[in-house]
UniProtKB/TrEMBL annotation, chain A:
Its main location: cytoplasm. Residues 54-350 form the Gcp-like domain. This is N(6)-L-threonylcarbamoyladenine synthase. Signal peptide: none annotated. The gene is KAFR0A03360. It comes from Kazachstania africana (strain ATCC 22294 / BCRC 22015 / CBS 2517 / CECT 1963 / NBRC 1671 / NRRL Y-8276). Belongs to the KAE1 / TsaD family. NCBIfam families: gcp_kae1 (TIGR00329). It is an enzyme of class 2 (transferase). GO terms for biological process: positive regulation of transcription by RNA polymerase II; telomere maintenance via recombination; tRNA threonylcarbamoyladenosine modification.
From TrEMBL, chain B:
Belongs to the protein kinase superfamily. BUD32 family. It is found in: Chromosome, Telomere; Cytoplasm; Nucleus. Component of the EKC/KEOPS complex composed of at least BUD32, CGI121, GON7, KAE1 and PCC1; the whole complex dimerizes. The gene is KAFR0D01950. This is EKC/KEOPS complex subunit BUD32. Its EC number is 2.7.11.1. It comes from Kazachstania africana (strain ATCC 22294 / BCRC 22015 / CBS 2517 / CECT 1963 / NBRC 1671 / NRRL Y-8276). Its main location: nucleus. One of its GO terms (cellular component) is chromosome, telomeric region. It is an enzyme of class 2 (transferase). Keywords: Activator, ATP-binding, Chromosome, Cytoplasm, Hydrolase, Kinase, Nucleotide-binding, Nucleus, Phosphoprotein, Serine/threonine-protein kinase, Telomere, Transcription, Transcription regulation, Transferase, tRNA processing. One of its GO terms (molecular function) is ATP binding.
From TrEMBL, chain C:
One of its GO terms (cellular component) is nucleus. Component of the EKC/KEOPS complex that is required for the formation of a threonylcarbamoyl group on adenosine at position 37 (t(6)A37) in tRNAs that read codons beginning with adenine. The complex is probably involved in the transfer of the threonylcarbamoyl moiety of threonylcarbamoyl-AMP (TC-AMP) to the N6 group of A37. CGI121 acts as an allosteric effector that regulates the t(6)A activity of the complex. The EKC/KEOPS complex also promotes both telomere uncapping and telomere elongation. The complex is required for efficient recruitment of transcriptional coactivators. It holds the Pfam family CGI-121. One of its GO terms (molecular function) is tRNA binding. This is EKC/KEOPS complex subunit CGI121.
Amino acid sequence: MVNLNTIPPKNNREYYIAIGLEGSANKLGVGVVKHPRLASHQSGDNSHICKAEILSNIRDTYITPPGEGFLPRDTARHHRNWVTRIIKRAIKEAKLTDPKLDIDVICFTKGPGMGAPLHSVVIAARTISLLWDVPLIGVNHCVGHIEMGREITKAENPVVLYVSGGNTQVIAYSENRYRIFGETLDVAIGNCLDRFARTLKISNAPSPGYNIEQLAKQCKNKDRLIQLPYTVKGMDLSMSGILAYIDSLAKDLFKENKKNKLLFDQETGEGLVTVEDLCYSLQENLFAMLVEITERAMAHVNASQVLIVGGVGSNVRLQEMMAQMCRDRANGRVHATDERFCIDNGVMIAQAGLLQYRMGDVIKDLKDTVVTQKFRTDEVYVSWRE
Amino acid sequence: MSQEIIDTVTQYCTKNIPVTLISQGAEAAIFTTPVHPYLQNTNEDEVYIIKYRPSKKYRHPTINKALTKHRTLSESRILAKLFQIKGIKVPKLIACDPYNGYIWLEFLGEDLPNGFGFSNLKNYLWMNATDSYHDNVKNTLVKVGEQIGLLHWNDYCHGDLTSSNIVLVKTESGGTWEPHLIDFGLSSISNLVEDKGVDLYVLERAIISTHSSFSDKYNEWILEGYSNIYKKHGKAGNQRLTEVLARFADVRMRGRKRSMIG
Amino acid sequence: MTTVILPQFEGTEINIALYENVKNSKEIRAKIADLPYALIDAKAIISGEQLLSAIHRALIEVNYNKMRTKSLHSECLLCLSPTSNIGDAFKKFGILDNSTSIIAVHIGAKKEEINYDFIQGTCIEFTDENLGRLADKDYISKIYKLEKTFRPETNSDLSRAVVDAILLRGL
C-alpha cells in the first residue's frame, strides 16, 4: 500500500513545496513545484497524478562555440557562477516570500552525470539547506526524468525510452524498480549526435541535436538513404561504430575527397551527398534502432504505452517514428513532453524528490549528500509505486 | 497490425497454403501450415512453421529491406551450421525467402497430455511440478544443459534462451524427451564469455521466475549437463568451463547489465 | 514422368523424369543448347527434396529478385549449386558425355508440350529410393564441400545438409 501522505506538509498547510537543483551536464536548472495534499494519495498507485503545479522552471545552458564540447571544469565554473542567480530567480518567480517557511524539501541531482558540475550544484544545495534549515533529498537524474514525464503525460505504466547526452536506456517498471531492459553498450545517443555536430562544426545553440534535426528536415534525397551500420544487439544497441563511420564520411565530404564513391560521382566528380543527407540518414538509422528496442521491451512486458524522456526526446522525428510503431501495435500510445521538460531541468528533480520526501525518505546527515558519477536507474528503490 | 500481417502472409502464400498465426513477437510472426512448399505431404498430420519478419512502417524502406534480408539469412545460416555440429538438435530448414522475410521450418514438439499445452520446457516443468525430482525430469534437464553446452562450446550464442525456446520432442521409443533449441533470431557467433554468461543467466532467470520452488535443483541439473560437454575436452575444456561459469556468476551478481558511468 | 506444382507458384508446372542406363549422353550434349529442358546428372542428386528445393529457390529468385541466367532451366541448375558461378554449376550438375543417369526437368506454363524421347534410356520412377541408388554420395559431399565438416549417417542427413547449402548459396 502506497501512502504518499506519510509526512505532513510544513506548518499545517494543505500543500507541499519542493525546490529542485539540477546540474549533471551543461544545463543548470532550478525549479519549484507544488503538490496539493489529496485524499486520493492516501492509498493506491497514484504517483502519476500528483496534480503538480509548476511554480517556476528556470534554466541556463552552458553553450560552447561550434566544434567544441563542454568540458567538466568549464561547465562546473558556469554552474558556480550562475547557481545563486538562478535560485533567486526561481524563488522570485514562484512568488515564495520566505523560502525558510515555504519550502518542504530541497532536492538535488545525486547522479549520474559529470562529477565536477554535480559537485558545484550540490554545494549550493547544502548551503541553502543549512541557511534555511530545510531537509535535503538526493535524486537519481533518470528517475527525475521518468517521474516528470509520468506526471505531465499521466501515463500510468509506460515503457520509458530515456535518451539524452549521457544516457540511452529502455526502462520498464517492475517490483519497485525502474528496470533497464536495454541500453547503449558504448556512447549515448545524444553524445553521438553532439559529436557529429562538432565534426560538422554547426552551432551548439540552442543544442547541437536540435540543429541536426533542422538540417535533416532539409534533406532533399530522402529516398536515397545512406546505409549505415545497424547495430541492435538483442535489447541493447551500440553506436560508436556508426559515429566513426559517418564522421569519416563527413570528413571526406569537407576535404572533397573525390575518391569516395559514395560521396562523389566517379566520372563527373559531382557531389552526390550533402550535409543535410548525412544528418537525415544518421537520424533515420539511430532512431529506427531506438524504436526497435523499445518495441522489444513493450512486447516483453506487454505494455501499450511509451514515454520518451531526455533531451533527444524532444526530437519530432523520433516522436513520429515512435508514434507510428505504437499505432501498429494494438492500442499503443506514445507520450512525449516538450523541450521544457525533456531537456534537463530543476522541476523534474523537485518532482521526483518530493515523491521520495512524501514517502518519508529524507537525508539525515550531510555526509549522505555525496554525489556520484555512476548511479544506475535500477539502484533506486521506488517506494511511491506499487 | 496483426490483421495486416496475416493478410500479407496469406497473400504471399496464396490460397493453396492456409496459414494459422500461433505467436507474434516484436520482430517476427510465427505461422503454421499443413502444406510443404515443395514436397508432397506423405503424412496428413504434418505441419510446418512459417516465420515472417514484417516490415516496419516507422523504418525507412531502405533500412527495412536490408534488415529483413540480413536477419532472415543470418538465422537460416546459423540453423544450417548448427545442424552440421554433431549432437546439436535444431529444427530443419525447409526454405527461405530473404527478399520477403520468410523462413520455412520443420515443426517440432507436440501437445502435452492433460492440457499442459505445447511441449516446451516451461510447460513440461509445470506438468512435472507434482513429482519434480523424478529421474525423467533430471534426465531431460541434463540433456537441456548438454544442448546449451554444445552450442557454447562451438562458439554460438542463442541470445534469447528462455524456457519457451527449448522444445521437447518425444523419442521414437516414446519413453524420454529430446530437447531441441528453437528461435535463433537473436543468435550470433561469439567467443565472448560475456555472451555465454548472459545466455545461462537468462535461462536461469526464466526458470526461477516460472518454477521458483524447484529452480535450484533444475538449474543445478542444467549446469551438470552443460559441464559434461566442456569436460569431455580435457584440460582446455575445463579451463573454458571455469571462465564461463565465473562470468555467469558475475553476470548474476550484477543482474545482466554492466555498471554504468554517467 | 512426375508432374509437380508448387503451391506457392500455381501457374508453373514442373515435369520431372528420371532415366537410367542412358546411352546417348554425348549426342544429347551436342544439341543441349536448343533443348528447352534442364538436364541434370543424377549422380549429383540424392533426393527429390534436393532438386525441388532448388527449383523452389529458382522461382523465388525469379519472382522476387532477378533472373541471373537465360532461362528458368539454367536458373534451376544454378540453384542446385553451392556456388554462384554459372559455368561451374553446369559442370557439376549438367550431364557429361559419359553420364548414364539423367534427370530431365521442364519448368513452364501448364500444357506446354514436353517430349523426352530424345533420351535413350530406361525411364524409372522419380523416387528417393531410385535417386539414392543412382547418387554418388562422395561426389555430392565433395561438390557441396561437406567432406571436411560433416559426416552424414543417412541419406536424409546428407540431403538436409545439401538443402541448407542450396538455400543459402551466394547470400
